[in-house]
Amino acid sequence: MGSGNAALQTREYERVFGVLEACDEANSIPEFAQRLLSALGSQFGLRHTTFFTGSSFHSAFDDPAPLLFGHIPGMFAEYHSDWSDRDGFDSPEPRRMLQATRVGSLRELHRLDDQARGYFHDFLFKYGMYSATAMWLQLPSGRHALIGLFDSDPNLVADRELVTLRRLARQLNVISRGLPAEPYVNPHVLAGLSHRQREVAGLVAKGMTNASIGRRLSLTEDTVKKYVSRALAATGCRTRTELALLARSNA
Question: Does the predicted model carry a pTM greater than 0.85?
Answer without folding.
Answer: no
